[in-house]
Structures are given as C-alpha cells and as structure tokens.
C-alpha cells in the first residue's frame, strides 16, 4: 500500500497546494494555525513535521519560531517519503534562505534518535500510513518527555453539517478534482479514506494504545471536518 500511496501523491503533487485551497475553501490555513498555537513554541525548541508534503505546516512552525527569536539551523525539519511532494517544499524553502530542513523519512521508521524534538507533528498524513499506531508511536518516540505530538486529520462531521459534507465529499470533490487537477480517482480516494478513518475518541484510543502518552486530548475543528489530536509524551 505504501508504494501506491507514494505514487498517488507523486501524481497529484503539482496541483496539491491549489487543490487544498479549493477543496477546503482555504480553511486548512486556519487549522494549521490552531495546530501551531497548540504547540505553544518557546525559543530554542525543535520541531519535526512528518508527512510534510509541500511543507506548509513545517513553514508555519518556522514562521512562529522566527517571530519569537532568530531561528537556529535545523530547528524545524520536514520529512516525507514522497520526494515529488517535497519538490514544492524545497521551492518555497529557497524563498526563506532554506531555513527549514527537508529530509526523506518514512514515519513508520524515523531515522532520528529518541527524545530529540520538543514537538512532532503530522497533518493529513496519518490516515495514509499503513500502520497508524506505529506511526504515532514513532512520532512519540522522537519527542522528549513532556513534549507534544500534534496530529491534524480529517474526521466525520455530525449534526446539521453531516449530510451536506457527505454530499460534498462524495460527489462534488471528485468532480472538482477532475476539473482542476484532471484527476478524479485521487479526489475520490482522499474523501473515502477520511470517511472511514477513526476520529475523536476512536483515534485517541489508537494514541493511548501506544502507552507512550501521559495525556491525550483533541480539538474538534469546523464541526468535526477535522480534528487536532494532542499527546503529551511520557
Ligand atoms: C495529504 S498529504 C499531507 C501533506 C501535508 N502534511 C499537508 O498538510 O498538506 C499526505 C502526505 O503524507 C505522505 N505520507 C504518507 N504515508 C507516509 C509515510 N509512511 N511516511 C512519510 N510520509 C508519508 C505523503 O507522501 C503525502 O505527502
């Protein structure tokens, strides 16, 4: 499955940023801001963003750190197992003097030593990972005790928003994918995986099953279209 996932992201990489903004009506910027706020970054802290794709969350962390103080080399690292996605991260990085470091890594087997980072994160990536529990466990392993693992992922909205969202994701999203990215299948796959992925308490159960967190909680975003999961590392 990993190879299929990698190939799919490679095929949509050129349109990824544009489609993100179209499909989420730009709301993903707000969700990333909530994620960065939750990190409550302090000067000198180190951040690892996994499945970084085109790097937006890694850049958001770097911008916040840079507001607090001059950033250090390699203070923010973005990783992904799809080089084609990271091409666009590299392009953006050049504009800020390559301040963020981007490296190849599979989140299920990170090359970093245990207790290295203050924050690790993954946005809209964990549901694509073959073994999400192993991915969460790796995200926790590389974070120092007391640090945070931040996981942003789609959920399934309930209440009044549920039916319109289902119609939008099942019927409209694939058509928008076809229209703007000439790719209906990827934009069918993405909402289908989101609709089946464990959300809210069910995802916290996965996090807790690793035994690596002293505390876990979530924030529901946009009526449950997305969730931010937080784990404090033991
Ligand atoms: C939907 S994109 C999200 C990109 C970015 N984090 C964002 O928020 O826009 C999912 C990313 O997860 C990456 N990915 C999936 N499985 C992975 C794995 N096992 N290790 C590293 N990256 C992975 C894909 O290559 C892709 O770039």
What does this molecule look like?
The chain is 46% helix and 21% strand. The protein is of the alpha/beta class. It has one domain: Rossmann fold (3-Layer(aba) Sandwich), CATH 3.40.50.150. The radius of gyration is 17 Å and the shape is globular. The relative contact order is 0.15. The chain binds S-adenosylmethionine. S-adenosylmethionine (SAM) binds next to helix 1 and helix 4.
Tell me, rounded to a whole number, the average pLDDT: 93
Cofactors and ligands present?
S-adenosylmethionine
Beta strands, count = 7
Just give the CATH class: Alpha Beta
Helix fraction by DSSP (H/I, runs of at least 4): 40-55%
CATH superfamily annotation: Vaccinia Virus protein VP39
3D shape: globular
Low-pLDDT runs: none
Quick tags:
globular, seven-stranded mixed sheet, alpha/beta, binds S-adenosylmethionine, Rossmann fold, 234 residues
Structure at a glance:
By secondary structure, this protein is α/β, with parallel strands linked by helices. The protein is 46% helix and 21% strand.
